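Case study.
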Amino acid sequence: MNAPTGGPPPIEVRGLRKVFRQTTSGQSVVAIDRLDLTIAPREVVAIVGQTGCGKSTFFDLMIGLEAPSEGTLRIGDKSPYEHFDHFRGRIATVFQQDRLLPWRSALDNAKLPLELIGLPEAEQRERAMAWLKRLGLGSFTNAFPHELSGGMRQRVAIARAFSVQPDILLADEAFGHLDEVTAAELRETFLALARECGSTAILITHQLEEAIGVGDRIVVFGKSAKLLADIHVAHWPKSKYKVLREAIQSTLQSNTPDSRLLLAKKSRAAPNGRRAAKAR
Amino acid sequence: MSIEEHREPVPDFGFPRQAFVSLLVFAVFWETLSQLSSYLGIPPFAVPSFVRIAKSLADITPIDIVVTLARVIGALIASFVLGASLAMAMYRSDSLDKYLHPMIRILMAVPVVSWILFAVLWFPGVEFRICFVLVVVCGPVFLVDMLDAMRSVPKELRTMMQSFRPTTPQYFIKLMLPAIVPTIFTSLKVNISLAIRVVTIAELVGAVTGIGHQLSAAEELFSVSDVFAWTLVLVVLLFMLEAVVARVEARMLRWRT
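After joint prediction, the assembly is written out as follows.
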């Protein structure tokens, strides 16, 4: 595997607003309302929120498939929508369903992004094969998606995303549809690989447990992607996860930001956390 | 579990027994009618015996088969290229689709005979006339089927592909075309049958070679056996083309099995 060069740029979201007009009623729906967020390079961020809170819209804006209605979303100094081609091979995605092309073998699916960036065929095969082997699919490179189990297909999708060694990795409910054991295993693999590649990873989920288990940082979206909480998990000892979970659940239910759970207040965020303990 | 689910699968021997029986019954009926034609007051040339038909088959000129086959294949390729190009352009541009769609529907409603008459009146060259008629009949079938198929490609796959930022040619080559291959084969099978029938009619008008021309010559000579023989050739040709397409289809779509 090639070592990452340079490193991913930071992600800056300022006053981001996305409004959709409903085709049937003609009414406007505010999916994201003035979101401010900064994601540092190589951070693993879990975005959690209830269904319809704007998580998937944020995902589409991050990919660059949608344009913001107002505000800015910049990766480094470029917008993923306006500079769409610039991010070819720099942003990769893993979706809820594997979304493999059914007519392509596992190997051909894994090398799809490499084909798009125009690598030589031999290098494409070599890199895709290496990633499939890393994900335990070395014996299934010629299998078609319908010949693989759900977990194996999702591994191919992960290999496809990592094959370009992207700066930014986006995962939208990528493990939610799998059984608990497979999901936990894949989650760990995904995180280990993201850290190894030095990619910034943004995982979107509606499962609080998954968010706590995955992210270095948990961002909680309320209605219209209102920032309810922004937490560094490392500041919370495992013994306090129950308190953290309850606090997030409470803020989700009330749709009101909790000052204890906002990153700016991190010194007060976890009074019984590691830092607080050290200070004491 | 229902009774149907317990039913043993019937082995497929390639040529079903029922088809063989029905063909045999038809052959016996035809031969009997031929032998009894003088007693039944039917002119002898109207129902020729199989011996006479076999003689006509022996006199078949392969060059006419080759010419007709070349016209069909050439026109199918031209129709596919034209249909696919327009389908892709219409998929990309809603306004182009809005302008062209009604025209295509009108073209598809025009009878083949009208196209042949237009071709005779507009174009002096026989080959161009035949090609024009075939393309104007088969092209819209490819176009409409491919356009519908492109629009039916699941949104999930389209979003996935777009998230990896392909160029427009890559988007079509790596996603759209492979995704619509099953539809292309279905459309091709429909068009082969259509082209075989249309080319025969088009060759009746002005062509000096081809199966249609030979059918026209047989009609002038009141030779039912020749008409029967050439018709048999057309049917066999159609089956052979369909068999070739089915083989290629099975190979290309092996990912579905």
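Observations recorded in class. The interface with chain B takes residues 63-65, 84-85, 87-89, 91-93, 95, 97, 99, 101-104, 112-113, 115-116, 144, 146, 170 of chain A (CB under 8 Å). The first strand of chain A starts at residue 11 and ends at 21. We will return to this complex in the next lecture.
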